[in-house]
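Hey, does this match?
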Amino acid sequence: MILDRFSLKGKTAFVTGSSRGLGAGIAMALAEAGADVAIHGSSKVPKTTEQTLSAMGANQLSVVGDVSDASVCARLIEEVVLHFGCIDILVNNAGTIRRAPAVEHSDEDWQTVIDTNLSSVFRLTKHAGKHMLAQGSGKIINIASMLTFQGGVFVPSYAAAKGGVGQLTKAFANEWAAKGINVNAIAPGYMATDNTEALRANPERSRQIMERIPARRWGGPEDLAGAAVFLASSASDYVHGHILVVDGGWLSR
């Protein structure tokens, strides 16, 4: 049965930045597909997220730590493997954004965004990849962005980081595709999350964005569920180095 290929039963997944928002939605989708799930927050994981997963009957683990710290990235992977015995799926979702004109964009903000959104993807993928290479299988899903393809406005560090995520996705895929590991990415369009709160609060900017989206609405966590399950499952076994755009048609305009 084709639907059996989308099942994640017996698999262990780790979703960074999954305490709320898109990450929580992805974690719940993977759990609903049958995976054991480790959820993550920079400082805490809300009880509501844990309770939602528990109500679904998911076997879960909560881990915390700032992924901009290299030592934390290594520790988080080891905690997941120690608890579950393996790691089959890694979703690099944790991220942050800083908005300012380029000449006012501080070095501190630049470094924070690069470390959180790009360096952590490299480090977490590298550490998880060691376990996946040893077992001969694994699925890695990076969360890219429309700014993987476009330059954006007032977000130079975010655009640079997300552009790098796209290239890292291809680089790891090239190395690991023949070794049983799929490395792909999802590029969400304009989603109703904390990161876009400032845009949605600006009537003019919000109107401009909405007018360009053919679907005529902002996306939500539920819109990424199918893409995440597909890329985490055996249904995508011949998909490597791909950036799957989920944007309501934004890039087609």
